[in-house]
Amino acid sequence: MSRPYSFLLNRKYVLIAVIAVLCLAGIYRGAENYLAKVRVPPEERLTVALDKTINSSAFRFRMAVKIGDDTISKVEGERVAPDNVHIKGTMQDLPVEFIHAGDKTYVKGYWSDRWICLEGNKMAESELFVTEFNPLGIFNFKDIPVVKEIKDKKTDLKVLEFNPIVQNSLMELNYDNYFYRIWVDPKQQVITKALIQAQGKIKDNNKLEINLELWDHNKQIKIEQPDV
């Protein structure tokens, strides 16, 4: 005779537990949203975003590089730490696709429509492709004197602007007066978009512009060697 009562009592406890879990979930989401809106000094926001972005285990990206009025490269791809990368797009108006995995680089479209295997890391380390193979290399700086946060009502992202002293041999050699605008996800605290501009050292009209988009930070991404 006690079973119905016991059954109802158990259901009552289960209901209480479910409500408690939902309440905790609501509190967590509320706290996350609150922290995202809390005023953080732009220097601190940038430092954290750079650290979390550069140390992402994997990410996908889209990048366009222009010099003057000419688009030098326009690629999309993914990168998995430490140095596996897959990119596809156009370079110098030629369709190309690269896969770098382990100590081998595979190229298709640049010289042939078939995959060509290059032993070693020479292609990935070449200054000709260093930006496309490692887009996060543009976030290496010697110093960032001032960081400003820009209000933009069109987005929930935090927009930061600064003029850094870059630490990149290729960029230092050819360009100067760098301007960066980056968009930071306040919840994940990672960079999702960046605009980089610089003036050419040789010619004033030799202006550099890089547009970079980043997403799927720390997601499970697998890059495999193609069949050759």
Automatic annotation (TrEMBL):
<feature type="transmembrane region" description="Helical">
    <location>
        <begin position="12"/>
        <end position="31"/>
    </location>
</feature>
<keyword id="KW-0812">Transmembrane</keyword>
<keyword id="KW-0472">Membrane</keyword>
<protein>
    <recommendedName>
        <fullName>Outer membrane lipoprotein-sorting protein</fullName>
    </recommendedName>
</protein>
<keyword id="KW-1133">Transmembrane helix</keyword>
